[in-house]
Specification:
The structure holds 2 protein chains of 2 kinds. Chain A is mainly α. In chain A, about 75% of the residues lie in helices and about 0% in strands. In chain B, about 5% of the residues lie in helices and about 40% in strands. The chains are: A mainly alpha, B mainly beta.
Amino acid sequence: MKPNLKLFLVLVAVALIAMPSVAQKTPSSMVAAYDSLATIILSVPQAEEALVRAMLDGHFHGAKALMKQGMYDRAAAEMALFANEGDNAVAGIRKRLVEGGHHHNAAGEEQGIYEEGYVLVTREAKKKMLASSTAMRQAKDDVAREAAWKEFAAVAEETLAE
Amino acid sequence: MQRLIVWVAVTIPAIASGSSLPYFVDIAAEAGIVAPTWCGRDDKPHIMESNGTGLGLVDYDSDGDLDLYLVNGWRLDGEEIAERGRDVLYRNEGQGQFLDVTEAAGLGSDAWGSGMATGDANGDGLVDLFVTNFGTDVLYLNQGDGTFEEHPDSPNLEGWSAAAVFFDSDGDGDEDLFVGGYIECTLEEVLMEKPSLVWEGIDVMKGPFGLEGLGNKFFRNQGGGHFEEATVEAGLEDVGLFYTFGILAADLDGDLDLDIYAANDSNPNYLYSNDGGLFQEVGLWSGAALDEGGAAQAGMGLAAGDVESDGLVDLLVTNFQQDMSTLYRNLGDMIFEDVTRSVQLGRPTFSRLSWGTTLSDLDQDGDLDIFVANGHIYPQADLVADKVGGGFRQPNLLLVDQGGTLVDVSAEAGPGLAVEEASHGLAVGDIDFDGDLDMAISNVDEPPTLLRNDTKEPGTYLLVDAPLAMRAEAVQGDDKWIRHRVIGGSFLSVNDPRLHFGLGGKRQLDSLTLVWPDGFQRRFLDVPANHALKIER
């Protein structure tokens, strides 16, 4: 049985048990159940944001560590994953959410600030960080690498801080 | 130094000092290739009717020439099935003639076909056919006497499967199978569908957005042609249920095993890095999943080749109209860079809806050219052709490499390039033993086009048939050409498996070196040009 169907049946059962013969006011048990459900609904976007932030944090620190180890191509790859808010597995989940009607930043998408389904990374930030990733790949010396990293880190830290 | 074991099909045309522009003539009708390949109704209300079908150049009877297999779809009329098109096998009779031998070969499926792959599924040394269908996929085992028999337990995606490739994923000597899925849908949905998306003010088919993707599957060959699904175990999971169209296998990181690249419609492309038969999806971090702006494109067809002869396989992806095809330069270590703009690929591909493609040396001047099969998915595009840059039927595109930039020579490349159809499948190979590359193209609701390469002054060439070799390197003085084994690609189609070198006007190579997956090498010295070679390990 699907979880949402289970939840529905539980709520119906609560409603039937609590239903008075003359419904002059909403039974308190139903109000309490609905209140609990509201808490869950409202916490979902926060949980989503926290999860995405944790993923991005992982890519950020991964890139930083790889930079220190001199693995610049791999660092550039981590930077690209930050810019894309994850790899193709995450993109697949994002696609599923969008097709199911969930847009974390619906208003921001309409204004062209966010790509569909993106949670934290704006279009502008993505563009800048992908450019930094490319610059990191193409950098011929430490000066160029440092410049690419600085540009990336500034945008990434701003994204994580919001 | 070792000697060549077998020399075959020697042809020595006049040796040119350079090469002229490629020149192609459509000989399909005179060659006897006349079967139309169907794809739904005239107005194409369901996205299933956008697919078109693939085709393959394959030497099924081991007589040394390339035969042609056409995958066929269905013709619909309103909510009815008007005709179940049958797959067709044409045997190459030589002298530019092909004969329909479908019935004699025990073929002729009337399933709604999509694409195909070839490989030796049961290790008997004969080439087998795998046909993807809207419905049940079928593996046809070659009996070695000109006939095929259906595998009793064929690997199968069940649904709308698209491209497929046979490849030895784990170096155990047998060929495994990877099959791409597009979307989940039923025949009833296809039959009942009405146009419901407004595009340029016109009602057209909807999708793929909003439709559920059909997961790709990997089947491991357990030996003797017995396949077991091992998608997740191998790391080849379709993590996003993306809409996969094109698939190719090639050694993209230079470690002598075959990696997988998949073109996804309207979603990021997949790149699966192979490490001893276990794969990791690295598309987004490799740089080969999105365009340079970080956008997912509508990936349709694929090609791979070593554009710069630097030993690294570059990737070409064809996309939707009003978007560019994308060329990814391989920087090594599985890192790719979108160089579409710098090689000037954007402008000539932007106004076309592009499908099958190739990176091949069509004029044999020594560098790789690009051919793209084009055609819109909406017949309604004819109503706004001026506005969007092309209608349902579109001319194909030929770009030649001139000093590192791509030049559109379609208008000068002969009457074969003047054909305008909704072209999707493309298979490339030498059908007439003259050493240059010809092309077979499938057209939606029309017979195929067969483009014979009649380039007036082609450069010299070398055709190398070296089964399972991963790459071949030809050297003459300071010049070097590298060709890699690429399986699949284009769009739902199968190319001539031989490695083709255009050598400009060079009459002889200093050396030719072949490398196999275990690192074993064979090197030949003083190899004359204008030969087709068969080299066994």
